Amino acid sequence: MKKKLGMYLICLIYIFELIYTMSAMYFNSFMVTHKIEIFENIYQIAYCMIFIVGILYILLLIYKVGHHESIDLKKNTGLLFGIVFMDLVLYGFFIIPMLVSSPAMKMVCICFLVHLLVYIKEKQLFVLEK
C-alpha cells in the first residue's frame, strides 16, 4: 500500500480532473437557463481537491526522499503524462488555454519539476557541496 501511494494520488488527480471538467461543462451550459447550486459546489470542490491531492503527492515525494525510500519516477512520470494527454484532448490540442485554465495542468507542471529535482538528487548530476 505504501509503495503505491504515489500512484493512487496521481489517479485521484485523474478522477478530480474528470469531475471538474464534467461539472464545468454542465455548469457552463445550463447556467443560463437553470440555477443549480450543486454543480457549482462540485465544480469548486473538484478544483480545490486537484491542488490538495497534488500537494499531498509532493509531500509524499519529499517524505520518501528524506527517508531514502525508493521512488518509481518512471511510472509516476508516465501517469502524469497521461494527465497531460487527457488535457490536450479535452482542450483540442491548444496548449496555451490548457495551461491557463486547467488546474490539473498547473499541478502536473509542479510535479514534473519536483520529479526533476528528485532525479537530480538521486543521480547527483550536480554536486553542490565541496
TrEMBL record:
Keywords: Membrane, Transmembrane, Transmembrane helix. The chain crosses the membrane at residues 7-27, 42-66, 78-98, 104-120. It comes from the Bacteria. This is Uncharacterized protein. It comes from Faecalibacillus faecis.
